[in-house]
Amino acid sequence: MLTAAQRLRRSTDFAAAVRGGRRVGRGAVVVHLTVPATSTSGATTPLGTTSPEPARSTDPELSFGSSRAGFVVSKAVGPAVVRNKVRRRLRHLVRDRLAALPGGSTLVVRALPPAAGTPYARLGSDLDAAIAAAQTPRGRRSR
Predict the structure, then answer these.
(1) DSSP code of 78?
(2) Nearest CA among 140, 132, 136 for reference residue 31
(3) What is the rounded distance in angstroms from the CA atom of residue 50 to the CA atom of residue 48?
(4) E strands within 5-119?
C-alpha cells in the first residue's frame, strides 16, 4: 500500500501532472510522468506550462524528496469491481517502482479498457516500459 504522502488525491495535482508531464502509452496503461527541474541556473519555464507543484505544499509530508503516484481507472475499463481490481493491481506494481523515480516526481497511471483482462505480469511489463520511455530524454525530430 502506498503511504498518504505518496498518493495523489487532489484533482489539481492530477491536472498538473497530466498537463505538465511526459505522456507515454504502452499496452494497457498510459503513464504521465513529471520530473522536477534540477537546473540551478534560475531558468524560467516557457509560457503556457503548468507547474508540477501540488496545489497545497504546506504539508510537511509532501516534501520535495518523495515521489507521488495517482491512478485513473475510468468506467470504460468495466464495472466497479473490475475497476477496483485493476486499481489495486496497479497500486501494488507502482509501490515497488516509485523508489526508483527521481525525488519529487509525480506519476499518474491511466488504465485503458484492455487492462481489465490483462494478466498481472503483462501489466507490470507495460508499466515498466512506459516508465522507462517517459524517463528517457526526448530527442529532436527532423522534419
Answers:
(1) -
(2) 132
(3) 7
(4) 22-26, 29-34, 68-73, 106-111
Question: To the nearest 10°, the Cα dihedral for 9, 12, 18, 21?
Answer: -100
Distance CA 61, CA 108 (A): 19
pLDDT digits (tens, 9 = 90+) for 2-16: 888 889 999 998 999
The three cell numbers locating residue 47: 509560457
pTM: 0.77
In angstroms, the CA 128 to CA 114 distance is 17
Cα 97 to Cα 12, 21, 102, 133, distances in angstroms: 23, 18, 11, 14
Per-residue pLDDT reduced to its tens digit, 95-108: 989 988 888 889 99
> What pLDDT is attached to residue 40?
47
Average pLDDT over residues 43-61: 47
Q: Which of 62, 124, 134 is nearest to 96 (CA)?
A: 124
